[in-house]
Amino acid sequence: MKSAPVLVVFAVIVALWYAGAVWLNAPWTYDQAARAGADVTLTQLLSDTMAQKRPVLPAPHQVVAELWRGVTGYAVTSKRSLIYHGYVTLVTTFSGFLLGSVMGILMAIGIVRSRTLELGMMPWAIISQTIPVVALAPMIVVLSNSLGLGEGLGVSNALVSKTIIAAYLSYFPVLVGMIKGLRSPDQMQLDQLKTYNASEVQGFVKLRLPASVPYLFASLKVAIAASLVGAIVGELPTGAIEGLGARMLIGSQFGSPIIVWAALFAAAILAGVLILLLRTLETIVVRRMGERA
Amino acid sequence: MSLWLAVAFWLAAWGVNAALAHSRIAGWRVVRIAIPTLFGVAVLVLWEGVVKGFGVAEVILPAPSRIGVAIGANLPILWIDFVQTILKGGLTGYVLGTAAAVLVAVLVDRVPFLRRGLLPIGNFMAALPIVGIAPIMVMWFGFDWHSKAAVVVVMVFFPVLVNMVAGLCASERMQRDLMATWGASYWQALFKLRLPAAMPFLFNGMKIAATLALIGAIVAENFGSPTRGMGFRISTAVGQLALPLVWAEIAVAALAGSVLFGLVALVEKRVTFWHPSQRGR
Lengths: 293, 281
Fold this sequence. Notes:
With 293 residues, chain A is an all-alpha fold. Chain A has helices spanning 4-36, 42-49, 60-72, 82-113, 115-130, 133-147, 149-153, 157-182, 187-195, 200-235, 244-253, 257-288. Chain B is built from eleven helices and no strands. In chain B, helix 1 (2-22) packs antiparallel against helix 2 and helix 6 (134-141) crosses helix 7. Chain B is flat and about 75 Å long.
């Protein structure tokens, strides 16, 4: 029973959550009762704190109900459907992830091949990650709007700016992982290729690239999670019309915590699914390449 | 004209860098700093040249010199925002979150049941988009910096926790056995062996958390903030098309992020001087 402790801890967390919901929502219940001049019994307290419309902390089943309603209750095209918002965020996550990964891989190849690039660019790649991208986000939105990048590519400007933000967050793990991976073949293997009279390019394609695949997948998993964060953050300054991040902003502006929690859980589920997908892809690719383990 | 000058400068800088990188003095400390610095200056010069050369409007992309002027002219505002967002929101949350994560990590390490139960959940949480709790925290703790600090605490907590738990297992079997033969108590072994051995892992987590802290502090301001703070200033200044001010804030954010990261790296160097990754440089 490997999963038993996980389940127990999970159950404890849910129980604590319920207790917290009762505790945090109780003042409002007492307040209402005092205004009505009524007393609050324990059963009333329990039932009321778990069914408030604007609770301080919604009870888990309220969040699950809202999540379920958001997923199944509306047509997929409806603005209230979480599937619709999730899809918007997913598209951004994927495009940002693709752009970021390609950029990361290309930069890694450049840095591994050129010493000038390594010494000149690597410190800036590190510094670029210490710059909080959210500070840049509104800037990126303005830039891509005024340059009309999106129209040139046949997509909306908002998607372009969100993609850039997501890519900015996701390229770095790929860059670091790929550099490590491309440098992972040892001297013996490099010498072997030399005895085969392999050219630089051949050595790169046949030895360094395959050797970097495990490292690549490890960093891709980090990158897609980062890309999702970027997609959500990117939705805030882009007008916040669609997407899970926008849903959170709307929920917070209308003071309805249940919407925020439901969107948060939808994002969490999305992240879990994406990482699971990559893990499956990794198993398939590694098996195709002949690895046994 | 200025465009060609800038391109010429870029090529010259590239040539100097290439020569430096392949020369025998490439290992020197000064050269290691000079090369990226020259690279950065070349990018700024190219930026200036492109903006001047093509006559790019200021509402699209201001030249670096204009941003420099904006920084000089808005120093009081920048300082107020810096204190509000970085010092109060970001740093408070960073310190609290790291401390909490270290304490929980020691607890998790002590209780095997928690390690098997809590760690997978912690691993999962570390991959989640935790920025999403920002609106909830703003509802709970109000608009001022307390809610920002709370967001940062949660964002920082999981990466540090996961790294710290891994770090507490980092001491070798032989070393732990040696502690046992000396009759060391749990606490003695913890403080003399396992905590020091965990330090490289802790700093790894703290470096990841440093950037997350600033992201959390700034994002949370999107969900409501008093009329100061970097996130607030950036979004309002974008609305007023005061782009030099926006870039000035970005420069401050970049500087703050780099300094925080650098400080953590500096302390790491002092504390984990014995670790192979810090030796032999």
